[in-house]
Every structure is written in C-alpha cells, then in structure tokens.
Amino acid sequence: MTNDLLRAMIEYNAPDVRRVNHSLKVLGYAQYLARAERCAPDTARIIEAAAILHDIGIHVAERVHGSSAGNWQEIEGPPIARRMLADIGADPRFTDRVAFIVGHHHSYAKIDAIDFQILVEADFLVNASEDSLDRDQILSFKKNVFRTHAGTELLSKLFLQ
Predict the structure, then answer these.
(1) CATH code for position 11
(2) For 10-30, how does the pLDDT look when each residue is reduced to its tens digit (9 = 90+)?
(3) Are 147 and 117 in contact (CB under 8 A)?
(4) N- to C-terminal Cα distance for the chain?
(5) What's the DSSP call for residue 66?
(6) Eight-state DSSP code of residue 108
C-alpha cells in the first residue's frame, strides 16, 4: 500500500520536486519514530499514509485560496487524500483516520493519539530544517508540542546541541 500511495502522491505533485521531497522526508522521520515508539503495525501504516499525504492539499489551496497556509491545507487535503486512498482500495476506517490527520495536522490541540503525534513531530523535524527555524522556535515547539521520547530526543540531537 505504501508504494502505491507514494506513486499516487508523486504523480499528483509532479513536477513539484520540493513537495515530493518534503513528503518523502516526513515519511522517513515518521517511520523512524513509529519504530522507535514501538507502534503496532496497523498504527504504523496509518502514520505512513498520513506522512505521504499530509500536505496533499497545498496545490489546491494555492490555486483556490492563493495561499498554502495550514488552515487551507487542512480544508483542501482530506478530499484529495480520500480519493487517493479509495483508488488504492484502502479500508474506510483507515481512510477516515488518515483524512482526519491530514485535515488537522496544523491543529496541534486536536492531537488525540500516537499516530497523529508522530506525524506532527516528523513534519516539524523536516520543517525545522527546511524553514531554518531558530533555536527559540524549536525550543517552544519542543516544550508545547513534542510528546514522544524518540521525537524529543531526535529534535534535541539535530537542532539543540
């Protein structure tokens, strides 16, 4: 399923290499965190799908709203994610969970489980580098959002030493 979803995401985003690379980096961190936190296989599959699709609404948000802001991504992403997941035959409950995470991945107060938490942490790890966040921004996010041991440790090793 992961390869089918990756193929769909790449085809959808092509030729936007930046978006494809971002999703691939988030997927890598998400997989690492899911293993480090000993997530169950079903949870790990949700995390992988959410990582691949978390920013899938950016192109529509930019076209329709003139902005890639998180609130627009959260509105535009879930319908696209649902179509892609349906096209690869994903289970409806699986699809609902992935769409929920895609539709709220900038709404940190809505984090309700480890799958969502890991997606947010993986996305931030990539954004911290891609957006050249400063130490104060990273410390604030660490204090207010990071919850997993593996994510907190990785954030500290990569950005706070």
Answers:
(1) 1.10.3210.10
(2) 999 999 999 999 999 999 999
(3) yes
(4) 37
(5) S
(6) G
